[in-house]
Amino acid sequence: MSDTDQVAVPPQLQMLPMLLGFEASQALYVAAKLDLATILSNGPVPIARLAAETKADPDALERIIRFLATIGVFRTEDGQVEVTELGLTLADGRPESLRYAAIYWMESHYTAFSDLLHTALTGEPAFERHYGRPFFDWISADPERVEVQNRMCLNMNTAVRAGMFDGYRLPDGAVVADLGGADGASLVHLLAGHPDRGGILFDRAEVVGAARANLAEHGLAERVRCVAGDFFESVPAADIYLLSYILHDWDDRSCLRILRNIAKAADSGARLVLVEAVLPPGDIPHPVRGMDLTMLALVSGRERNADQFRELLDAAGFTLDQVIPSSTSVNFVEATLR
Predict the structure, then answer these.
(1) Is a pLDDT exceeding 50 seen at residue 1?
(2) Side-chain-side CA neighbours of residue 157 (13 Å)
(3) Alpha-carbon distance 192 to 189, whole Å?
């Protein structure tokens, strides 16, 4: 039988694994939380020993591992468990690790999505209905959640967005303010090789402590000031403003508050660099479409296309200069304050 003669998979059989996707995501969460891939990274281990080391029920753990083996995460044979190359993406301390992404998404996103129907009917974030308060308030209320979020960001920057800044040069300007800059990873990349530039890491008080340590580790403690604050209230003066994955968290009205605070603090001619995914036209598969659904369910934000960015920036007094693609799924949206 030729390839063209093969029977197509009926649509109902295509739909089934999508409907059961929650099983895979939760089983992967268990593997990440128990750190199975890290334990197995040095070689196969008997299931009984793995269960003892992780304080798991042997029968339950074996059945979860057996399921994950069917999707290529582990291999099992004669009571032994071996991690695959795919499974190693859940091992801690590796450049390709997504372990904390798995933990963060399942502990902060997963149950909120059970109220997605509420969002569809009302337009209100499912997260707020489920947890009773806004997403970022819920995260910041618990230092452990903040730590997991920081580690997730590090995972994503290292494993998925590695090389994002390769070949990109910031516009001219002596001081770069990274608003919502988390651990300072973006400034580390962008200030490398530019000793004439200084920086400001601006984020919430519970975040900037971790940033100081990271910046010091990369020799930037003297060149980058860490400032705690709220970009909805005010921002420090700078020549260039960097916002990485910030505006997509907020609706247009909230974004305008941030952008107008930048306009108040900066001189005309100041440059703005947004690191954001830009929605492509049509139904082309793209990671940004899944992210847009996340923004819908968790916060008031959204992903935007180039025209939407242009309109938003114009309303705040900025002129969109260009959209520069990167080697990843995100773009650099550059604008100038009029």
Answers:
(1) no
(2) 20
(3) 6
CATH number at 163-337: 3.40.50.150
Output the pLDDT for position 232. Answer: 97
Q: At what angle do helices 143-155 and 205-217 cross, to 10 degrees?
A: 40
* Catalytically annotated residues: 248
In the chain, % helix, strand, coil (3-state, to 5) comes to 50, 15, 35
Spatial neighbors of 243 by CB under 8 A, at least 6 apart, are: 178, 179, 180, 258, 272, 273, 274, 275
DSSP state of 170: P
Can you tell me the distance from the alpha carbon of 336 to that of 139, in angstroms, rounded to the nearest whole number? 33
Helical segments of the chain, H only: 11-19, 21-33, 36-40, 47-54, 58-70, 99-108, 116-122, 126-131, 135-140, 143-155, 185-191, 205-217, 252-265, 287-298, 306-315
User: Mean pLDDT across the chain, nearest whole number?
Assistant: 94
pLDDT tier at 6, thresholds 50, 70, 90: low
Write down the domain spans for the chain: 3-90, 99-158, 163-337
Strand bridging mode 45-46 / 80-83: antiparallel
Torsion angle (degrees, nearest 10) of CA 32, 38, 44, 47: -40
Q: Does domain 3-90 have CATH number 1.10.10.10?
A: yes
